[in-house]
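Fig. S4 source data, part A: sequence.
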Amino acid sequence: MRKNALLVILLLVVCVGFLYSQGQANVAGNNQEQTEVSQTEENVSVTAGNTPVKEKEVTAYNKWVHNLVKDMESTNLIRVFFEAGVFAWVILGVFLISILLFGIRYYQLMIKEKLDSDKFHLKVKGLVKSNSIKEAISAAELVQRTSMGQIYRIGLLAYRDAKESGKKGDSLKEEVQNAFNEASYQTIPEIDRGLHWFDLLAQSSTYLGLLGTIMGLIAAFSGISETEVLMGGIKQAMGTTALGLIGAIAIQFIKGFLSSRAEKIINDLDANSVKIMNVINNQIQE
């Protein structure tokens, strides 16, 4: 468990460092573009005496493009991110951890648990009714990676072993029922395990945004006599609030998606476990 946690932290540090370097490269690129635009305008102004009308049109066009790009950058989320300061990177780290957890839980709930439960139940039901318990166990073992396959396999194995040991009637029913219950108690908690971490991460994103807002306002008021410091503090305050809320909303949507899938799997397990148990009870009575 500790090795996995260290691996996650290392991966997070690498990702944040990569994004930070990319951001610095983007900032440098923007500065270079602004320098090139200024140089172009100067070159055009120097040669304006030869073709005055054409050069004035080029200069006006370059200014229009430069102002348009500048306006777009001022409303860009990436721009807001870099102006939000260190808290933006912490919020990004929280969001990356959420994405990592989402990938793990998505594999477990959407890929590992992928099974047509109704079709599988009908197949096992037919085999049990025909007293083909061995074939029913084999069918469950084919999908034992899923929770339903695991529960059916354990219950059917207990049914077979109890019959071979000579148990009959209520004693046999109780033995099989206990086996299904025990399998359910061991399996079902694993389905929605870890989903509560998304609530913690969403709250952390919100609180970090609020903390960044407070720190930005403190910085703004401490430099209220300096326009640049004041504007920087306000940008940090507003940016961290926005990023914290965006991260929290996204994480809650992720948690809602996974929770709905986990709930569906658990409901299918409960319903089909009762159904197959009723089939087995009917076979015991006959």
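Fig. S4 source data, part B ends here. Confidence is low (pLDDT under 50) at residues 1-57.
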